[in-house]
Structure formats: C-alpha cells, structure tokens
From TrEMBL:
Membrane-spanning segments: none
Cofactor(s) named in the record: Mg(2+); Mn(2+)
EC numbers on record: 1.1.1.85
Name this protein carries in UniProt: 3-isopropylmalate dehydrogenase
Function of the protein: Catalyzes the oxidation of 3-carboxy-2-hydroxy-4-methylpentanoate (3-isopropylmalate) to 3-carboxy-4-methyl-2-oxopentanoate. The product decarboxylates to 4-methyl-2 oxopentanoate.
C-alpha cells in the first residue's frame, strides 16, 4: 500500500535539511518496500513568494489527503516586515491547527558521542533521555482576542490571550501519561499555576487524571523552576508535559543539553496517528544556503514518522542506529564540532548516514 508524504521544505535551511531526510527515507523505503510516495509543495515565506499566502488552500488540501507531512522550517528576514496575518509562521500555525496536530513530541536524547558538544558537563548529561510533550494547537499562540490596540491616551498596547479548554488539557495530558507509561513512568507537568488561571485549570485536570494512571509518578513544576532544573539536573526528568509556549521555549533549552538544536527532532500528531514531522529548530537564516546546517534533527524526525505514523519501528530504529554509527566515525557539522572530529557539510552528513544505513 502506498504511503503518501507531503514534503514542505519551506525557508532558509529547510530545503537543505529536508533533502537529506528524503535521501535517508529512500534507503529504508527500498529496503523494506514501504511504498513511500512524495508530493512536493511549499509553506512559509517560499509560499508567500509563490502563492501570496504562507499556506495555500491547495497545499492544505494535499496535506489533508496525505498520510504524513515532512517539513523543514519557515521564516526569515525577507518576510519579517510583512503584515502579521500573512507572515511565514502563520502558515505553520495554520497547518498544525487545521490538521489537528495537538501533540508535539520533542525527544531530547544525548548521543553519547556528543557528550563534549553539550552545554553541560558530561556528568550531568550522560544518558540523557527526556521527552517533552508540548501542546501544539492551543494556548497563547492561537488565543483570541489578540492584537495591537490604541489606548485612550494614544499609547499602543500589544495583547494576547492564553486560553485552554478542559478537553484540550485532558487530551495532551493523556499523551503525557501514556508516553510516561511506555518509558520510566515519571511525568512532570509544567505550568505557571501560581499566577495564571489557565495554568490553574491545567494543574487541576492533570492532577485529577493521575488516578487513571496509578503506575505513573506525577509531579508539577512551575515553568521558571523547570527552566532552571533543566540545566541544573536534567536527568531528573523523564516525560514533561506542558503548554504550547512553555514547550516551545523549554525544548529549545533542552536541545542544547544534547549538543545542538540541530539534534532535536519532533513529531506533531493528531488523535489518529497522522502526523507532521519537523526539526524543532527554525530556518536558521544565518547559515542558510551554506550547506553547513545539521540535518540530523530532520533525519531523526523522518525516523519518528516511520515509528508513529507508519508504525514501522524497525526502520525507525535503523535510522537512529545509522545516526549513531555516523557520529562514531567522528563526523560533525559545525554546530556539534569538537576537537579531534572531522567537520562535514549538510550533504556530507546526510550521505554518511545513508552509507551507514546501507550497511545495516
Ligand atoms: N518550526 C519552524 O519553522 C520555526 C521557525 N522559526 C523561524 O526561523 C527564523 C529564525 O529563527 P531563530 O530564532 O533564529 O531560530 P533558529 O532555530 O532558526 O536558529 C537559532 C540558532 O540555531 C542555529 N540552528 C538552527 N538550526 C540549526 C541546524 N539544523 N544546524 C545548525 N545550527 C542550527 C541557527 O544557525 C541560529 O544560530 C525566524 O523567522 C523564526 O520565526 C523559528 C523556530 C521554529
Ligand atoms: C512559529 C513558531 C511557533 C515555531 C516554533 O518556534 C516551534 O514550533 O518550535
Ligand atoms: Mg521553537
């Protein structure tokens, strides 16, 4: 049976890193006869240039007909001055929302070969394996009302709203509990319940759900403390579940424990296993077009696609193993470079993973 993948490379380093992930997918496709079929389209700034909007209706329709989406990244200085409603990032938020991709899984795993690339000393990060479960279609990135208004005294005021419905909290918390059950059975719910009503409701609902998961040890933490604990003692965490903005920020922070944001993959899932797979980082305009971005987060996101949407754990495991074997060869893109290693380009890194994969 064919498996339809919509490839949306997007902006900046997007096309460079997505190319490498597709190369890697092609190897497992041939090996296991997976029937992967690609359609290419675009999103973000590239879509503004092509269609006049950051996500064309036709692209969204193709995404809805596809089994999975592989996405690079969106955004860049070229489009930063556009009116807010048509900025590249709006396309990304819209596709997540329209596809119902409420559960964003961001695993922060330290490959032992990269212990020296981590921002923390090796003793703090050795064996690190945290899963951040981020709510992706609600909260302050979507809340209404929002805008920039002019007050009576003529001063302008920017405002956003952070709403969470009970059902939105419950469904993401359930993902957190279930992921914890599959792992080390520890769930830390991160909120700001000492200040915000939406967090108070969040904490109440998560607390009530704990009864259904007696095997999971639940804890709660305020987000400011969580940010600090992530760099103090990161291995205290197993699964963290949190809202859209907190998860966005904490996952970038956690990425540096693994050596680089270029190592952090993600899966954005709906209720039925359909998903969009994208690295956790952005379009990195500062290094775009230089063939120096790290493609591993995108390659590892492709592995997550095989695991979560196509239920083919064997090929996902193989890709992750090939990444480890490539790092064993001391090949490093600039962001994870350390002494005694060989610096490689984006495409050289992708080719090296392909070469290791073909040997397995
Ligand atoms: N999912 C997405 O499409 C996201 C898009 N953005 C957009 O990307 C643009 C740039 O945003 P920034 O805040 O600079 O975040 P960014 O994640 O693009 O870059 C932050 C820093 O990390 C580096 N970096 C990121 N990915 C890398 C990789 N694969 N290999 C090596 N180094 C890497 C960049 O060079 C930069 O120094 C903005 O327009 C922003 O809105 C930001 C985050 C996520
Ligand atoms: C448009 C942003 C919400 C993208 C982002 O920073 C992310 O998803 O990590
Ligand atoms: Mg982010």
């Amino acid at each position: 049976m064919t498996k339809k993948i919509l490839v949306l490379a997007g902006d900046g380093i997007g096309p460079e890193i997505v190319d490498e992930a597709v190369k890697v997918l092609n190897v497992v496709n041939d090996k296991y006869n997976l029937g992967l079929e690609y359609t290419e389209d675009t999103i973000g700034g590239a879509a503004i240039d092509k269609y006049g909007v950051p996500l064309a209706d036709s692209t969204l329709a193709t995404a809805k007909e596809s089994d999975a989406v592989l996405l690079g990244a969106v955004g860049g200085p070229k489009w930063d001055t556009l009116e807010r409603s048509i900025r590249p990032e709006k396309g990304l938020l819209k596709i997540r929302s329209e596809l119902g991709l409420f559960a964003n899984l961001r695993p922060a795993i330290l490959y032992p070969q990269l212990a020296n690339a981590s921002s923390l000393k090796a003793e703090f990060v050795a064996g690190l394996d945290i899963l951040i479960v981020r709510e992706l279609t609600g909260g302050i990135y979507f809340g209404e009302p929002r805008g920039i208004r002019t007050l009576e005294n003529g001063e302008r005021q920017g405002y956003n709203t952070l709403p969470y419905r009970e059902s939105e909290i419950e469904r993401i918390a359930r993902v957190g509990f279930e992921m914890a059950q599959l792992r080390n059975k520890k769930l830390c719910s991160v909120d700001k319940a000492n200040v915000m009503e939406s967090s108070q409701l969040w904490r109440e609902i998560v607390t009530n759900m704990a009864k259904e998961y007696p095997d999971v040890e639940l804890s709660h933490m305020y987000v400011d403390n969580a940010a600090m604990q992530l760099v103090r003692l990161p291995k205290q965490f197993d699964v963290m579940v949190t809202d859209n903005m907190f998860g966005d920020i904490l996952s970038d922070e956690a990425s540096m424990l693994t050596g680089s944001i270029g190592m952090l993959p993600s899966a954005s899932l709906d209720a039925n296993g359909k998903g969009m797979y994208e690295p956790s980082h952005g379009s990195a305009p500062d290094i775009a077009g230089k063939n120096m971005a790290n493609p591993l987060a995108t390659i590892l996101s492709a592995a997550m696609m095989l695991r979560y949407t196509f239920k083919h754990a064997e090929s996902a495991n193989l890709i992750e193993k090939a990444v480890g074997l490539t790092l064993d060869k001391n090949l490093r893109t600039a962001d994870i470079m350390s002494m005694g290693c060989d610096k490689v380009s984006t495409s050289e890194m992708g080719n090296a993973v392909v070469a290791e994969l073909k040997k397995l």
